[in-house]
Each structure stands twice: as C-alpha cells, then as structure tokens.
Design brief:
Shape: elongated
Strand order of the largest sheet: 3-2-1-4-5-6-12
Structural class: alpha/beta
CATH superfamily of the largest domain: NAD(P)-binding Rossmann-like Domain
CATH class of the largest domain: Alpha Beta
Bound molecules: nicotinamide-adenine-dinucleotide
Helix content: 25-40%
Radius of gyration: 19 Å
Number of domains: 2
Strand content: 15-25%
CATH topology of the largest domain: Rossmann fold
C-alpha cells in the first residue's frame, strides 16, 4: 500500500485529492497539512473532504508528513511547494507538484533537486489537457507561420496566478513547434492602437469569472478559416485523479523530473 500525504489538504484541490485517494486501490492517506494557524487544523481529513471519518488529523507539520508517507501531493503556492521540496529531498521521498506560477528560478531549483529525488511537476493533470499539449504542437507545426496562434484561458475568480500554468505550457509548446522565442513573441492581452497583429505573435489571454474550473482554447487563425482546439474541465476530480495516478507511478521510477506526458505514456 502506497502512503500518500497531501500538502494544502483543506484547499479546493486538497479536498478532491483526499477523495481520490479514498477512491483508488493500492493507495492510502498518510496525512495532510495546512498553513500554521489555519482554522481547520486538528480536524479529521475524511470529514474535511466530505467522507467518513479517517482518524487522521490535519496538521501544519510538513516534515512529519514526509516522514509518514511514501509520496507527497502538493497543490498550493510556489513558496509552499519550495518548502515541501526541501522536506522531501531531505528524506529522499517522492513528490507530485500540481502548483502553478513557479518562477524560472524556482523551476531551476526543482530541476536541481530532481537529480536525486523522484518528482512529477505538471501544470495540468487531466488526461484531456495532456492530449491537447501533444496535439497543439503538431497542429502548429503543420499549419506553420501562415496561421496566427491565440490562446484563451478562463478560470474561477479566486485563482491567484495569470495566465494559467496550462496556458503558459501551451504557449511554450507552440513557440517550440514554430521555432520562436516566447519571450520575444508572447503578447499578454491587447489594448489601444497598433499597426495590427505582429506576424509571429503568440497571444495569451486570461479571463477570470465566477467558479469556472478551467477552460483552454487554442485558436489557429488563417485567411478564410480558423481551427480551434479546446478543453473544458467540468470537475476538479479530473486533476485529483491525475495527481493520484502520478503519485502511484512516480514511486517506482528512478530519480528525475517528470510530467504528465511521462505518467500517461504520451511522450514520443
Ligand atoms: P486553494 O487556495 O483552494 O488551495 C491551496 C491550499 O494551500 C489552501 O488551502 C492554503 O491554505 C494551503 N496552504 C497555504 N500555505 C500552506 C502551507 N504553508 N502548508 C500547507 N498548505 C498551505 O487553491 P487550489 O484551487 O486548490 O489550487 C492550488 C494550486 O493548484 C494552484 O497553484 C492552482 O493553479 C493549481 N492547480 C493545478 C492543477 C493541475 O492539474 N496541476 C489543477 C487545479 C489547480
């Protein structure tokens, strides 16, 4: 039985991850943490996730959580995940990060740590979005420079980072496929007058409203036609199930930095 710990256990994703662990054979909940002073500290994790009592209490001790578990799932904030990384590296355990919004420096720290620990880092754990990642690059390559690429994402009003980690990943994939430097061609929203769209621009646009779980659209606009790829998440369970699948997979891998393309066997 693989013991899984959840950092950010009382969060929107944390509660869904606890429910997914409960639903999956071969894994059991080893514990969960929240920030110091969180009002739910001490509460039963099962009850917190709307399930029967699990007799495991929510704590704020990430080191004890890492000690008690084989693998940690962390969907929180970049600075919280960096502290989880340190705790996991000190004990040579495995970790799955769903957190988005890491800086380039934080990503480098994760890459460095993953030379000696097993780590999955993926901005979107759903199967559909990972298939979208795979085909977006192929479509961009086939259509080439004659088609303008615009990426639109929509999320709930509480989301902290923008654009979404998923939209960032799509823009990186399309830029790679078209051999463009995203730092030079990425355009994040537009306003005012210009001479029109730059030929090689990759537009990325963010919408925030209500309780939208996650929507992504990649538009390839040509003269006389538009091709669109789109994905809509109807439930957080799709991300939670993906993260538990990643946790089960990564415990038996050699040290390294993986993403969902590896977990799902989608890598070429
Ligand atoms: P949320 O705010 O509901 O949950 C985050 C939780 O982390 C909160 O409960 C917060 O109290 C907790 N937290 C803060 N400091 C902590 C600490 N020191 N120790 C432990 N817990 C701490 O947010 P959410 O909607 O669950 O999203 C969390 C992250 O996951 C975001 O970065 C979001 O973009 C990302 N996300 C990723 C995917 C994916 O598939 N990879 C899917 C959905 C969301």
């Amino acid at each position: 039985m693989i013991k899984v710990g959840v950092v950010g256990a009382a969060g929107r994703m944390g509660r869904n991850i606890i429910a997914s662990i409960d639903d999956t054979e071969g894994v059991e909940l080893g514990g969960g943490t929240e920030s110091a002073g969180h009002p739910d500290l001490g509460r039963d994790l099962g009850e917190l996730a709307g399930l029967a009592k699990k007799n495991v209490a929510l704590t704020d001790d990430v080191n004890a959580l890492v000690d008690a578990c084989d693998v940690i799932i962390d969907f929180t904030l970049p600075e919280v995940s960096m502290a989880t990384l340190k705790a996991v590296a000190a004990k040579n355990k495995a970790v799955v990060f769903g957190t988005t919004g890491f800086s380039a420096g934080q990503k480098r720290e994760i890459e460095q740590a993953a030379k000696s620990i097993r780590c999955v880092l993926a901005p979107n754990m759903s199967i559909g979005v990972n298939v979208l990642f795979k085909i977006a690059g192929e479509v961009a390559r086939v259509l080439g420079d004659a088609y303008d690429v615009e990426i639109v994402e929509a999320h709930h009003k509480f989301k902290k980072d923008a654009p979404s980690g998923t939209a960032v990943r799509i823009s990186e994939i399309v830029a790679d496929a078209l051999e463009r430097n995203l730092d030079e061609v990425g355009v994040y929203g537009r306003k005012g007058f210009s001479d029109g769209r730059g030929e090689k621009e990759i537009g990325v646009h963010t919408l925030r409203a209500g309780d939208i779980i996650g929507e992504h659209r990649v538009m390839f606009g040509g003269m006389g036609e538009t091709l669109e790829l789109s994905h809509r998440a109807q439930s957080r369970q799709t991300f939670a199930r993906g993260s538990v699948r990643a946790a089960q997979w990564v415990v038996s891998q050699p040290p390294g930095l993986y993403d969902m393309q590896d977990v799902l066997g989608l890598r070429d």
